[in-house]
Amino acid sequence: MPDILIRNATIATMDETRREIAGDILIRGGTIAALGRGLQTRGEVIDATGCVVTPGLVNTHHHLYQSLTRAVPGGQDALLFGWLKTLYPIWARFGPEEMRVSALTGLAELALSGCTLTSDHLYLYPNGARLEDTIDAAREIGLRFHPTRGAMSIGESAGGLPPDSLVEDEAAILKDMGRVVDAFHDPKDGAMVRVGLAPCSPFSVSRDLMREAAILARDKGVMLHTHLAENDEDIAYSLEKFGCRPGQYAEDLGWTGADVWHAHCVKLDEGEIGLFARSRTGVAHCPCSNCRLGSGIAPIRRMRDAGVKVGLGVDGSASNDAGNLVGEARQAMLLQRVANGADALSAREALEIATLGGARVLGRSDCGSIEPGKRADLAIWDMRGIEAAGAWDPVAALLLAGPTRVRDLFVEGRQVVRDGHITTIDLPRFIEDQNRLARRLMA
Predict the structure, then answer these.
(1) Phi, psi of 30 (to 5 degrees)
(2) Do residues 380 and 408 make contact, with C-beta atoms less than 8 angstroms apart?
(3) Cβ–Cβ < 8 Å for 238, 202
(4) Residue pLDDT, tens place only, 36-57
(5) Structural domains in the chain?
(6) What pLDDT is attached to residue 121?
(7) Where would a tag sit more exposed on the chain, N or C end, judged by fewer CB atoms within 10 A?
(8) Parallel/antiparallel/unpaired status of strands 378-382 and 408-411
(9) What span, in angstroms and rounded, lies between the C-alpha atoms of 359 and 16?
(10) Do 18 and 348 touch, CB atoms closer than 8 A?
C-alpha cells in the first residue's frame, strides 16, 4: 500500500490533551506514521486546505437491519415497548438478503457521516439469516466492524415481549455464539472484525442466558453488550420481574466490567453510575433514538464526571430514524445543555465522546485519536461550504454548524469515501435494492 500524505489540514487529534495542529498527516501501511509541518512523501498527496481532520467517528450501538424499516406507520409515535410490538412482525419476514442489503445501506450511511468503526447488535435471525450476512457487508464497504451475536429467547407465550417466531432455543444460541467468535473474532491490534456477545435485553432473555453468555464471553476473551435502563417501562419491568433496578440485575449476573458496555442507560441512578464508574463498564449513549422514543435524556454529564466510559450510538434506523454519527454528537451536546445549562458539554468534549470515547468503550486502544502508531482511521471535513461559512473556530464549528457529511474517509489507510462519495460499492444500486426490499415488506 503506497504512502498517503494529507497536507495543510487543521488536525483535531483527540489525544489525551485534545491537541490541535495545523499541518500534515503521513499514512503508511495502515497506520499514522507522522504528524507535523512540511512532511514529504513519494506517494499520494491529498490537499486538505480549509478542512478539519478528525479521528474516524466510532459508533457503539446500532441495529443495521432496521434501516429497512424507517418511518413505519404505527411505530412513528410509540414508546419503546409499543414500537417494538409494531416492528417485530415485520422483522420476522426478513431473511439473508434483507440483512445484507440493510447492513450495506446502514454502513454506507455511517461512512458518509464520518464513521470508521461501528458495532452492530443483531439479535434476531429469521428465515436463515446469520451474523455473517452483516460481516460480509462490512468487509464489502470497508469499515472496521464490531458485530455482536445477539439473541432473544423469551417469547410472548412465556411472558416476554417478542413473538414466539423470533425467539431461539438457549442452547442453540450459546452454540452459535461460540461458532461466530471462533470463526470471525480477531483480537489483534488493527483488527477489522471483532465479535461480541449480546443477549438482547432483560425483557427478552432469561437470567440463565445472561449468566451463561457472560461466562462464555470471558472464556473466549470477547466483550458483552445489551440494552439497559432505557426508559421508565424498562425500570418498572426490572423492579416487577427481578425485584431490583437494572444496574443491580447486571451486576448480579456478571454484566459489569471493562469488557461490558450497555446501550442507552437513560435511567441510571447515582448508585448505578457509581457502579459503572468503579467497574469500568461502558455506556453507548443514543441521544436521537432516546428523543425519538420519548425515553428521556441520559445523565451523560454526571456519568462523565464520575468517570464512566461513554461513547455514542445511532441506534437502529427504525428508532432514530437516521444513521448520521456526527449529527448524533451534535444532539448529545445539545441535550446535555438542555438538561444542565449552556456550558454542560462543549463541542470538543462531544467530539471526544464520538471518537476516543467510543474507542475506549469498544476496547480499542489502537483507534480513536490521531497519533503516530494509531490506525489510520481518519475523517476529512471540508469547512469551506455554506454550513461553516463565517466560522471563527473550525473545530467547534463542525458540531455547532456543520457539515454533516464527510469529504474523505480513510479506514486502515484505505479510502472509503472520496469527495463525498463511497468508493467501495455501487451505492445507487444498493439504494435501489433497499427500496425494492422495503416495498416487498410493505406489500
Answers:
(1) 85, 0
(2) yes
(3) yes
(4) 999 999 999 999 999 999 999 9
(5) 4-55+369-420 (2.30.40.10), 57-361 (3.20.20.140)
(6) 98
(7) C
(8) antiparallel
(9) 13
(10) yes
**Angstrom distance (rounded) from CA 311 to CA 135:** 22
418 touches 47 (CB < 8 A): no
d(CA 386, CA 298): 32
Query: How many other CB atoms are found less than 10 A from the CB of residue 414?
Result: 16
Cell matching residue 414:
484505505
Distance (Å, rounded) from C-alpha 316 to C-alpha 323?
Answer: 8
Give the span between the Cα atoms of 262 and 276, in whole angstroms: 10
State the Rg of the chain over Cα: 21
Asked if 298 and 311 touch (Cβ cutoff 8 Å), the reply is no
Query: What's the pLDDT at 81?
Result: 85
| Amino acid at the residue 382 | D
Q: Go through 80-99 and write b for each residue having 16 or more CB atoms within 10 A of its CB, e for each that does not.
A: beebbbbbbebbeebebebb
Find, among 78, 77, 167, the residue nearest to 125 by Cα: 167
Residue that has been written with the C-alpha cell 476529512 in this structure? 380
- Dump pLDDT digits (tens) for 392-431: 999 999 999 999 999 999 999 999 999 999 999 999 999 9
